[in-house]
Please model this.
Amino acid sequence: MTRPALGKGATTLRPDRRRRDDDQATPDKLVQVQAARASRWERRRSLKKFTGLRRIRTCGSSTTSESGVTLGVITNPNGSRSAAYGGLTTCGSVWSCPVCAAKIATRRADDLATVMRTVDDLGGSAFLLTLTMRHTRGDRLGLSRPERTRRTELEDRAWRRDLARQAGDDVDEVTATREDDELAALDASEGCWDVLSYAWRSVTSGAMWKQDTERFGGLLGWARAVEVTHSVNGWHVHVHVLLCFREQVSADLARAALGPRMFGRWSRALERRGFSASPEHGWDLRRAQLGDGDLADYFTKMAHEVTSGHRKEGQRHGGRTPMQLLGDTAETYEAGDMARWWEWEAASDGRRQLTWSTGRRDLRALAGLTQEASDEEIAAEDQDADERIAIPRNAWAAMVASRQENALLSATERDGLDGARAWLNSHGMSWCAANPADCRPTRLAGPGRVRIARLLAPTGGHREEPALSRASAGA
Model:
């Protein structure tokens, strides 16, 4: 039987990624999952008060249509249920939004796990390379998205002017001088993240890299993830790279043959930009096995960190992650943390968290994965569900205003859609079995009625609107 499609942006549920049979459905585990989700939503709600990114302010609250939202539920093999809303706008901010970041990290972990299994089935080997750089408290994190866009534009214009000069064409030297000065100023203000990106490009180019790719039966491909923390010493930016080879190779041999060569290119590139790396602590290369220190495990832990809330102990060792910084900022509104968070938003916006090798060494193609989806596409992914109901837009607005979104999800996961209908009825909110547009507001009678306008009205009074009807399952 084909499940009903929920439509564009309809739900975040993924029936093909249900909880496995070996994931025991216990009441305690359900409570933990629901508490983590509530924490993510609450942190996003707090973030909306001070974020500098406009799209985050509407993430998860505004609807993608005038009709309303859908509530979908799937039953997992272990008997538990997973519920999610659809038809909501999403920001797709992998670096700043707690809700979108968790969803995207989970998908990236799934993809990397598929790659790891493919390499293992081929009899190959995988290694996790970590490259770091020295930093100081005064180092800037990185150029903002507009600054990076402008620098690319200026570099392109400078390149075109050089071609024109070589061809003997006229060039506006006044404009050229002004733009060259602007480009030099941007280059001088770049931060750790910008230099890191340049250094990695240097690692994966040139004759030495070509020689490295031919070792151990040939490089199947690589995947690179960026990690950032903040401590009293400033921003710490580093990369984790999954390197997959066709042959089985010992960790000691790979470390001796690849580590010093790749770190050497990394270190020289940093020095060209005024940075450096420690020969003793600037790199590490170890064998990666699925679920034990591989890049998929890293993303799984990242998703767990995002979903597990703000943990104080993580601040005392190795600095704070961005999500821990967000937790502190939302909790205290301390001026220093607020400034650091705004710097984080500006520098991270538009950057890729995970980058794959392409061409002959395309790991995704090797593993049979489809074309990579963007962060925004994953966050707003259209999926199916076993069952669904629809909630009209004004009922949803009332739910958001009263912060009841997670209460309805919990009721649905506990008692299915019957529980959802009962919850909506008890709160005087309308629903229907098909599309939100089919729901029609009518006045409720009796003590159970809740006037939506009363929940939404600002102080000073508001004209009361008719409340919403309790629609029957066949409506």
